[in-house]
Amino acid sequence: MAEASIAARNDPWKVLEFYSGIGGMRYSLMKSGVNAEVVEAFEINDKANDVYQHNFGHRPYQGNIQSLTAVDLDSYGADAWLLSPPCQPYTRQGLQKDAGDARAFSFLQILELMQFILHPPSMLFVENVVGFETSETHARMIEILEETNFITQEFILSPLQFGIPYSRPRYFCLAKRRPSSFINKDLNGLLIQSPRPLFEHVDKVTNEDDLSQKDWEKSLLSCQPIEQFLELKNPNNDSAADSASFVTHLPEHSIRNLGENDVHEYDGEVLDRASLDQYSVPLSLIERWGSAMGILVLMSLSQHLKFTIYVKGTGSLLATVEPKKKDKSSLKEQRLRYFTPREVANLHSLPEEFEFPQHISLRQRYALLGNSLSIAVVAALLQYLFADHF
Ligand SMILES: C[S@@+](CC[C@H](N)C(=O)[O-])C[C@H]1O[C@@H](n2cnc3c(N)ncnc32)[C@H](O)[C@@H]1O
Q1: Does the C-beta of 5 come closer than 6 Å to ligand 1?
Q2: Does ligand 1 have an atom closer than 6 angstroms to the CB of 137?
Q3: Does the annotation mark 87 as catalytic?
Q4: Domains with residue ranges and CATH for the chain
Q5: Which of 17, 57, 167, 342 has the most crowded CB, counting CB atoms within 10 A?
Q6: Which superkingdom does the taxonomy of this entry point to (predicted)?
Q7: What is the per-residue pLDDT across 178-222, written as a single tens digit (0 to 9) for each?
Q8: What is the residue with the minimal CA distance to atom 2 of ligand 1?
Q9: Which is the catalytic residue, given 36, 87, 336, 373?
Q10: H/E/C letters for each residue in the chain?
Protein backbone atom coordinates (compact mmCIF):
# COMPACT_ATOMS: atom_id res chain seq x y z
CA MET A 1 0.00 0.00 0.00
CA ALA A 2 1.20 3.52 -0.70
CA GLU A 3 2.91 5.03 2.32
CA ALA A 4 0.13 7.52 3.03
CA SER A 5 -2.43 6.04 5.34
CA ILE A 6 -6.10 5.93 4.55
CA ALA A 7 -7.61 9.16 5.81
CA ALA A 8 -8.08 8.91 9.56
CA ARG A 9 -11.53 10.28 10.36
CA ASN A 10 -13.71 9.74 13.31
CA ASP A 11 -16.84 9.67 11.19
CA PRO A 12 -17.09 7.21 8.34
CA TRP A 13 -17.06 8.66 4.81
CA LYS A 14 -20.58 8.77 3.42
CA VAL A 15 -20.79 6.90 0.15
CA LEU A 16 -23.46 6.59 -2.57
CA GLU A 17 -23.35 3.45 -4.70
CA PHE A 18 -24.95 3.96 -8.13
CA TYR A 19 -25.85 0.95 -10.34
CA SER A 20 -25.27 -1.25 -7.31
CA GLY A 21 -26.11 -4.63 -8.90
CA ILE A 22 -25.12 -7.37 -6.46
CA GLY A 23 -22.94 -4.95 -4.48
CA GLY A 24 -19.47 -5.36 -5.97
CA MET A 25 -18.56 -1.76 -5.07
CA ARG A 26 -19.75 -2.21 -1.50
CA TYR A 27 -17.75 -5.43 -1.10
CA SER A 28 -14.70 -3.63 -2.53
CA LEU A 29 -15.14 -0.79 -0.06
CA MET A 30 -15.33 -3.31 2.80
CA LYS A 31 -12.20 -5.11 1.56
CA SER A 32 -10.33 -1.81 1.18
CA GLY A 33 -10.52 -1.13 4.93
CA VAL A 34 -11.64 2.46 4.30
CA ASN A 35 -13.81 3.80 7.12
CA ALA A 36 -16.88 4.32 4.98
CA GLU A 37 -20.59 3.71 5.06
CA VAL A 38 -22.86 3.20 2.05
CA VAL A 39 -25.69 5.60 2.86
CA GLU A 40 -27.73 4.59 -0.20
CA ALA A 41 -27.50 2.31 -3.21
CA PHE A 42 -29.44 2.78 -6.46
CA GLU A 43 -30.41 -0.03 -8.82
CA ILE A 44 -33.33 -0.61 -11.19
CA ASN A 45 -33.17 -4.43 -11.40
CA ASP A 46 -35.30 -6.19 -8.81
CA LYS A 47 -33.36 -9.49 -8.96
CA ALA A 48 -30.07 -7.65 -8.33
CA ASN A 49 -31.78 -5.90 -5.42
CA ASP A 50 -32.96 -9.25 -4.01
CA VAL A 51 -29.35 -10.44 -3.96
CA TYR A 52 -28.09 -7.17 -2.48
CA GLN A 53 -30.74 -7.24 0.24
CA HIS A 54 -30.03 -10.92 1.00
CA ASN A 55 -26.36 -10.17 1.63
CA PHE A 56 -26.41 -6.67 3.16
CA GLY A 57 -29.83 -6.54 4.82
CA HIS A 58 -30.64 -3.31 2.95
CA ARG A 59 -32.70 -3.01 -0.24
CA PRO A 60 -31.30 -0.42 -2.64
CA TYR A 61 -33.51 2.39 -3.87
CA GLN A 62 -35.25 0.67 -6.77
CA GLY A 63 -35.78 3.14 -9.54
CA ASN A 64 -34.30 4.83 -12.54
CA ILE A 65 -31.19 6.84 -11.63
CA GLN A 66 -32.20 9.22 -14.40
CA SER A 67 -35.13 10.42 -12.29
CA LEU A 68 -32.91 11.60 -9.40
CA THR A 69 -32.75 15.37 -8.93
CA ALA A 70 -29.97 17.59 -7.60
CA VAL A 71 -32.04 18.07 -4.43
CA ASP A 72 -32.32 14.28 -3.99
CA LEU A 73 -28.59 13.87 -4.38
CA ASP A 74 -27.77 16.78 -2.08
CA SER A 75 -29.97 15.32 0.64
CA TYR A 76 -27.46 12.49 1.27
CA GLY A 77 -24.52 14.85 1.87
CA ALA A 78 -22.27 12.14 0.44
CA ASP A 79 -18.47 12.41 0.39
CA ALA A 80 -18.02 9.91 -2.40
CA TRP A 81 -19.98 8.56 -5.36
CA LEU A 82 -19.15 5.09 -6.71
CA LEU A 83 -20.60 4.42 -10.15
CA SER A 84 -20.55 1.39 -12.43
CA PRO A 85 -22.95 2.42 -15.22
CA PRO A 86 -24.06 0.01 -17.97
CA CYS A 87 -21.27 -0.85 -20.35
CA GLN A 88 -23.37 -1.83 -23.41
CA PRO A 89 -23.22 1.65 -24.99
CA TYR A 90 -19.43 1.18 -25.36
CA THR A 91 -19.16 -2.48 -26.32
CA ARG A 92 -19.25 -4.09 -29.74
CA GLN A 93 -22.10 -6.32 -28.63
CA GLY A 94 -23.97 -3.21 -27.52
CA LEU A 95 -23.45 -1.62 -30.98
CA GLN A 96 -21.31 1.24 -29.55
CA LYS A 97 -24.02 3.87 -29.75
CA ASP A 98 -22.18 5.69 -26.95
CA ALA A 99 -23.91 8.85 -25.64
CA GLY A 100 -26.75 8.22 -28.14
CA ASP A 101 -27.65 4.96 -26.36
CA ALA A 102 -30.54 5.33 -23.91
CA ARG A 103 -28.54 3.27 -21.42
CA ALA A 104 -25.96 6.06 -21.21
CA PHE A 105 -28.54 8.76 -20.40
CA SER A 106 -28.80 8.21 -16.65
CA PHE A 107 -25.03 8.41 -16.21
CA LEU A 108 -24.75 11.60 -18.24
CA GLN A 109 -27.74 13.01 -16.37
CA ILE A 110 -26.27 12.62 -12.88
CA LEU A 111 -22.93 13.95 -14.08
CA GLU A 112 -24.71 17.04 -15.42
CA LEU A 113 -26.41 17.44 -12.03
CA MET A 114 -23.01 17.70 -10.37
CA GLN A 115 -22.93 21.35 -11.46
CA PHE A 116 -26.13 22.13 -9.55
CA ILE A 117 -25.37 20.30 -6.32
CA LEU A 118 -24.71 22.55 -3.33
CA HIS A 119 -22.43 20.04 -1.60
CA PRO A 120 -20.88 17.91 -4.34
CA PRO A 121 -18.91 14.81 -3.34
CA SER A 122 -15.18 15.20 -2.85
CA MET A 123 -14.41 11.85 -4.48
CA LEU A 124 -15.79 9.99 -7.46
CA PHE A 125 -15.06 6.51 -8.79
CA VAL A 126 -16.26 5.20 -12.16
CA GLU A 127 -15.86 1.69 -13.57
CA ASN A 128 -16.54 0.67 -17.14
CA VAL A 129 -15.33 -1.42 -20.07
CA VAL A 130 -12.16 -0.74 -21.99
CA GLY A 131 -13.28 1.45 -24.89
CA PHE A 132 -15.15 3.84 -22.61
CA GLU A 133 -12.01 6.02 -22.45
CA THR A 134 -12.41 6.95 -26.12
CA SER A 135 -16.17 7.54 -25.99
CA GLU A 136 -18.12 10.80 -26.22
CA THR A 137 -19.59 10.02 -22.80
CA HIS A 138 -16.07 9.91 -21.40
CA ALA A 139 -15.18 13.22 -23.04
CA ARG A 140 -18.27 14.84 -21.47
CA MET A 141 -17.49 13.24 -18.09
CA ILE A 142 -13.98 14.72 -18.09
CA GLU A 143 -15.35 18.12 -19.15
CA ILE A 144 -17.87 18.16 -16.29
CA LEU A 145 -15.27 17.01 -13.78
CA GLU A 146 -12.91 19.79 -14.86
CA GLU A 147 -15.70 22.38 -14.66
CA THR A 148 -16.57 21.21 -11.13
CA ASN A 149 -12.97 21.42 -9.91
CA PHE A 150 -12.02 17.73 -9.93
CA ILE A 151 -8.64 16.26 -10.80
CA THR A 152 -8.60 12.77 -12.30
CA GLN A 153 -6.34 9.77 -12.66
CA GLU A 154 -7.49 6.98 -14.94
CA PHE A 155 -6.49 3.32 -14.96
CA ILE A 156 -6.93 0.24 -17.09
CA LEU A 157 -6.25 -2.75 -14.88
CA SER A 158 -6.96 -6.46 -14.86
CA PRO A 159 -7.28 -8.96 -11.96
CA LEU A 160 -4.34 -10.73 -13.59
CA GLN A 161 -2.12 -7.92 -12.29
CA PHE A 162 -3.35 -8.67 -8.75
CA GLY A 163 -2.49 -12.38 -8.65
CA ILE A 164 -5.86 -13.62 -9.89
CA PRO A 165 -5.72 -15.97 -12.92
CA TYR A 166 -8.42 -14.04 -14.68
CA SER A 167 -7.95 -11.61 -17.52
CA ARG A 168 -10.62 -8.91 -17.45
CA PRO A 169 -9.12 -5.49 -18.12
CA ARG A 170 -11.45 -2.69 -17.07
CA TYR A 171 -11.37 1.09 -17.22
CA PHE A 172 -11.48 3.11 -13.96
CA CYS A 173 -11.69 6.84 -13.36
CA LEU A 174 -10.66 8.16 -9.93
CA ALA A 175 -11.53 11.81 -9.30
CA LYS A 176 -10.83 14.09 -6.30
CA ARG A 177 -12.19 17.59 -5.84
CA ARG A 178 -9.60 20.26 -5.07
CA PRO A 179 -8.04 20.89 -2.56
CA SER A 180 -7.92 17.07 -2.16
CA SER A 181 -5.22 15.45 -4.20
CA PHE A 182 -3.75 12.07 -5.03
CA ILE A 183 -0.61 10.65 -3.41
CA ASN A 184 1.07 10.45 -6.81
CA LYS A 185 0.26 13.98 -7.94
CA ASP A 186 2.43 13.72 -11.04
CA LEU A 187 0.01 11.24 -12.54
CA ASN A 188 -2.90 13.69 -12.67
CA GLY A 189 -4.70 13.59 -16.01
CA LEU A 190 -2.96 10.36 -17.09
CA LEU A 191 -4.30 6.97 -18.14
CA ILE A 192 -2.22 4.38 -16.29
CA GLN A 193 -2.02 0.67 -17.09
CA SER A 194 0.04 -0.45 -14.11
CA PRO A 195 -1.03 -1.08 -10.50
CA ARG A 196 2.39 0.17 -9.27
CA PRO A 197 1.21 3.72 -8.34
CA LEU A 198 -1.41 2.20 -6.01
CA PHE A 199 1.29 0.69 -3.84
CA GLU A 200 4.28 3.02 -4.01
CA HIS A 201 5.32 6.58 -4.67
CA VAL A 202 6.01 7.18 -8.37
CA ASP A 203 6.93 10.37 -10.22
CA LYS A 204 5.95 9.04 -13.58
CA VAL A 205 4.82 5.91 -15.32
CA THR A 206 6.93 4.76 -18.19
CA ASN A 207 6.03 2.66 -21.17
CA GLU A 208 7.61 -0.25 -19.35
CA ASP A 209 4.83 -0.05 -16.80
CA ASP A 210 2.32 -0.92 -19.49
CA LEU A 211 2.12 -4.63 -19.83
CA SER A 212 3.55 -6.14 -22.98
CA GLN A 213 2.44 -9.59 -24.07
CA LYS A 214 5.55 -11.05 -22.42
CA ASP A 215 4.73 -9.33 -19.15
CA TRP A 216 1.17 -10.64 -19.24
CA GLU A 217 2.54 -14.13 -19.52
CA LYS A 218 4.92 -13.38 -16.65
CA SER A 219 2.03 -12.12 -14.48
CA LEU A 220 0.19 -15.31 -15.27
CA LEU A 221 3.04 -17.32 -13.84
CA SER A 222 2.89 -15.45 -10.56
CA CYS A 223 -0.90 -15.87 -10.26
CA GLN A 224 -2.55 -18.20 -7.82
CA PRO A 225 -3.36 -21.49 -9.60
CA ILE A 226 -6.89 -21.67 -11.04
CA GLU A 227 -7.74 -24.74 -8.97
CA GLN A 228 -7.82 -22.56 -5.86
CA PHE A 229 -10.91 -20.94 -7.35
CA LEU A 230 -12.73 -24.13 -8.29
CA GLU A 231 -15.38 -25.80 -6.20
CA LEU A 232 -15.79 -28.71 -8.58
CA LYS A 233 -12.58 -30.61 -9.01
CA ASN A 234 -11.85 -32.66 -12.06
CA PRO A 235 -13.35 -36.11 -11.39
CA ASN A 236 -10.97 -37.74 -13.85
CA ASN A 237 -7.87 -36.52 -12.25
CA ASP A 238 -7.40 -35.43 -8.69
CA SER A 239 -4.16 -33.71 -9.47
CA ALA A 240 -5.61 -30.27 -9.96
CA ALA A 241 -2.51 -29.06 -11.74
CA ASP A 242 -3.40 -31.29 -14.64
CA SER A 243 -6.57 -29.36 -15.24
CA ALA A 244 -4.89 -26.01 -14.86
CA SER A 245 -6.17 -23.33 -17.13
CA PHE A 246 -6.82 -19.67 -16.78
CA VAL A 247 -9.75 -17.54 -17.58
CA THR A 248 -9.73 -15.04 -20.36
CA HIS A 249 -13.34 -14.07 -20.23
CA LEU A 250 -16.35 -14.77 -18.06
CA PRO A 251 -19.90 -15.49 -19.09
CA GLU A 252 -20.79 -11.80 -19.10
CA HIS A 253 -23.71 -11.24 -21.45
CA SER A 254 -22.74 -14.34 -23.32
CA ILE A 255 -24.49 -17.03 -21.34
CA ARG A 256 -27.69 -15.26 -22.22
CA ASN A 257 -26.87 -15.81 -25.88
CA LEU A 258 -27.04 -19.55 -25.47
CA GLY A 259 -30.25 -21.38 -26.26
CA GLU A 260 -32.61 -21.93 -23.30
CA ASN A 261 -31.79 -25.64 -23.24
CA ASP A 262 -28.07 -25.15 -23.21
CA VAL A 263 -27.95 -24.06 -19.60
CA HIS A 264 -29.45 -26.37 -17.04
CA GLU A 265 -31.23 -24.77 -14.15
CA TYR A 266 -29.42 -24.95 -10.86
CA ASP A 267 -31.70 -26.08 -8.11
CA GLY A 268 -29.75 -26.00 -4.90
CA GLU A 269 -26.68 -24.88 -3.04
CA VAL A 270 -25.27 -28.35 -2.37
CA LEU A 271 -22.69 -29.38 -4.90
CA ASP A 272 -21.25 -32.84 -5.21
CA ARG A 273 -19.51 -34.65 -8.00
CA ALA A 274 -22.75 -35.46 -9.74
CA SER A 275 -23.38 -31.72 -9.94
CA LEU A 276 -20.48 -31.42 -12.33
CA ASP A 277 -22.69 -32.83 -15.07
CA GLN A 278 -25.00 -29.86 -15.06
CA TYR A 279 -22.05 -27.63 -15.91
CA SER A 280 -20.64 -29.76 -18.68
CA VAL A 281 -20.95 -28.34 -22.17
CA PRO A 282 -23.33 -30.58 -24.14
CA LEU A 283 -21.80 -32.42 -27.07
CA SER A 284 -24.53 -30.97 -29.29
CA LEU A 285 -23.22 -27.51 -28.53
CA ILE A 286 -19.65 -28.52 -29.29
CA GLU A 287 -20.85 -30.02 -32.56
CA ARG A 288 -22.76 -26.86 -33.36
CA TRP A 289 -19.57 -24.86 -32.90
CA GLY A 290 -18.00 -26.98 -35.63
CA SER A 291 -18.82 -24.42 -38.28
CA ALA A 292 -17.72 -21.57 -36.06
CA MET A 293 -14.29 -22.93 -35.22
CA GLY A 294 -12.76 -19.73 -36.46
CA ILE A 295 -13.81 -18.03 -33.27
CA LEU A 296 -11.93 -20.45 -31.07
CA VAL A 297 -8.56 -19.42 -29.80
CA LEU A 298 -6.57 -22.20 -28.30
CA MET A 299 -3.24 -21.11 -27.02
CA SER A 300 -0.37 -22.86 -25.38
CA LEU A 301 1.13 -21.21 -22.38
CA SER A 302 3.81 -22.39 -20.04
CA GLN A 303 4.15 -25.89 -18.77
CA HIS A 304 2.68 -24.68 -15.49
CA LEU A 305 -0.46 -23.22 -17.01
CA LYS A 306 -0.92 -25.86 -19.66
CA PHE A 307 -3.49 -24.26 -21.92
CA THR A 308 -6.32 -21.84 -22.26
CA ILE A 309 -9.54 -21.86 -24.10
CA TYR A 310 -11.29 -18.73 -25.13
CA VAL A 311 -14.60 -19.06 -26.86
CA LYS A 312 -15.79 -15.74 -28.11
CA GLY A 313 -19.45 -15.05 -27.53
CA THR A 314 -20.06 -17.99 -25.26
CA GLY A 315 -18.10 -17.08 -22.15
CA SER A 316 -15.31 -18.98 -20.56
CA LEU A 317 -15.08 -22.67 -20.43
CA LEU A 318 -12.80 -24.83 -18.40
CA ALA A 319 -11.08 -27.72 -20.11
CA THR A 320 -10.98 -30.48 -17.52
CA VAL A 321 -8.80 -32.81 -19.53
CA GLU A 322 -5.69 -31.74 -21.34
CA PRO A 323 -5.87 -32.82 -24.97
CA LYS A 324 -3.07 -34.86 -26.47
CA LYS A 325 -3.12 -32.66 -29.53
CA LYS A 326 -3.87 -28.98 -29.07
CA ASP A 327 -6.04 -28.33 -32.07
CA LYS A 328 -9.72 -27.89 -32.70
CA SER A 329 -10.30 -31.61 -33.21
CA SER A 330 -9.50 -32.15 -29.54
CA LEU A 331 -12.51 -30.20 -28.26
CA LYS A 332 -14.62 -33.22 -27.34
CA GLU A 333 -11.72 -34.86 -25.60
CA GLN A 334 -11.27 -31.89 -23.31
CA ARG A 335 -14.56 -32.35 -21.41
CA LEU A 336 -15.44 -28.70 -21.50
CA ARG A 337 -17.51 -27.29 -18.69
CA TYR A 338 -18.83 -23.94 -17.58
CA PHE A 339 -17.57 -22.32 -14.43
CA THR A 340 -20.12 -22.58 -11.64
CA PRO A 341 -21.53 -19.29 -10.27
CA ARG A 342 -19.50 -19.81 -7.07
CA GLU A 343 -16.34 -20.18 -9.15
CA VAL A 344 -17.15 -16.99 -11.04
CA ALA A 345 -17.74 -15.29 -7.67
CA ASN A 346 -14.35 -16.57 -6.47
CA LEU A 347 -12.64 -15.13 -9.56
CA HIS A 348 -14.33 -11.81 -8.81
CA SER A 349 -12.89 -12.12 -5.25
CA LEU A 350 -16.37 -11.95 -3.74
CA PRO A 351 -16.15 -13.09 -0.11
CA GLU A 352 -17.06 -16.64 0.92
CA GLU A 353 -20.13 -15.41 2.73
CA PHE A 354 -21.60 -13.94 -0.46
CA GLU A 355 -24.54 -16.03 -1.61
CA PHE A 356 -27.57 -15.93 -3.90
CA PRO A 357 -31.06 -16.31 -2.51
CA GLN A 358 -32.56 -19.65 -3.60
CA HIS A 359 -35.04 -18.16 -6.07
CA ILE A 360 -32.37 -16.64 -8.33
CA SER A 361 -32.02 -18.99 -11.33
CA LEU A 362 -28.71 -20.18 -12.73
CA ARG A 363 -29.11 -17.92 -15.75
CA GLN A 364 -29.77 -14.90 -13.52
CA ARG A 365 -26.76 -15.76 -11.35
CA TYR A 366 -24.47 -15.75 -14.36
CA ALA A 367 -25.95 -12.53 -15.70
CA LEU A 368 -25.62 -10.73 -12.36
CA LEU A 369 -22.07 -11.97 -11.82
CA GLY A 370 -21.17 -11.03 -15.38
CA ASN A 371 -22.22 -7.46 -14.65
CA SER A 372 -20.20 -7.28 -11.44
CA LEU A 373 -16.56 -6.40 -10.93
CA SER A 374 -13.26 -7.56 -9.50
CA ILE A 375 -13.22 -6.78 -5.80
CA ALA A 376 -9.44 -7.34 -5.67
CA VAL A 377 -8.85 -4.60 -8.25
CA VAL A 378 -11.48 -2.12 -7.05
CA ALA A 379 -10.48 -2.44 -3.38
CA ALA A 380 -6.89 -1.44 -4.20
CA LEU A 381 -8.11 1.50 -6.29
CA LEU A 382 -10.45 2.65 -3.51
CA GLN A 383 -7.63 2.55 -0.94
CA TYR A 384 -5.66 4.82 -3.25
CA LEU A 385 -8.64 7.13 -3.86
CA PHE A 386 -9.48 7.53 -0.16
CA ALA A 387 -5.88 7.92 1.02
CA ASP A 388 -5.66 11.36 2.57
CA HIS A 389 -3.39 13.78 0.77
CA PHE A 390 -4.59 17.31 1.16
C1 LIG B 1 -22.40 -2.80 -14.94
S2 LIG B 1 -23.73 -3.20 -13.90
C3 LIG B 1 -23.07 -2.76 -12.31
C4 LIG B 1 -22.97 -3.97 -11.42
C5 LIG B 1 -22.46 -3.73 -10.02
N6 LIG B 1 -21.28 -2.94 -9.93
C7 LIG B 1 -22.20 -5.08 -9.33
O8 LIG B 1 -21.20 -5.26 -8.67
O9 LIG B 1 -23.05 -5.98 -9.49
C10 LIG B 1 -24.87 -1.91 -14.22
C11 LIG B 1 -26.13 -1.99 -13.36
O12 LIG B 1 -26.88 -0.78 -13.55
C13 LIG B 1 -28.26 -1.06 -13.53
N14 LIG B 1 -28.90 0.04 -14.26
C15 LIG B 1 -28.79 0.31 -15.57
N16 LIG B 1 -29.44 1.46 -15.89
C17 LIG B 1 -29.97 1.92 -14.72
C18 LIG B 1 -30.75 3.07 -14.41
N19 LIG B 1 -31.10 3.95 -15.34
N20 LIG B 1 -31.13 3.25 -13.11
C21 LIG B 1 -30.76 2.34 -12.16
N22 LIG B 1 -30.02 1.25 -12.41
C23 LIG B 1 -29.63 1.03 -13.67
C24 LIG B 1 -28.36 -2.43 -14.21
O25 LIG B 1 -29.53 -3.11 -13.81
C26 LIG B 1 -27.08 -3.12 -13.73
O27 LIG B 1 -27.32 -3.88 -12.57
Answers
A1: no
A2: no
A3: yes
A4: 13-210+372-386 (3.40.50.150), 232-339 (no CATH)
A5: 17
A6: Eukaryota
A7: 999 999 999 999 999 999 999 988 877 765 555 555 566 566 667
A8: 371
A9: 87
A10: CCCCCECCCCCCEEEEEECCCCCHHHHHHHHHCCCEEEEEEECCCHHHHHHHHHHHCCCCECCCHHHCCHHHHHHCCCCEEEECCCCHHHCCCCCCCHHHCHHHHHHHHHHHHHHHCCCCCCEEEEEEECCHHHCHHHHHHHHHHHHCCEEEEEEEECHHHHCCCECCCEEEEEEEECCCCCCCHHHCCCEECCCHHHHCCCCCCCHHHCCCHHHHHHHHHCCCCHHHHCCCCCCCCCCHHHHCCCECCCCCCHHHHCCHHHCCCCCCCCCCHHHHHHHECCHHHHHHHHHHHHHEEEEECCCCCCEEEEECCCECEEECCCCCCCCHHHCHHHCEEECCHHHHHHHCCCCCCCCCCCCCCHHHHHHHHHHCCCHHHHHHHHHHHHECCC
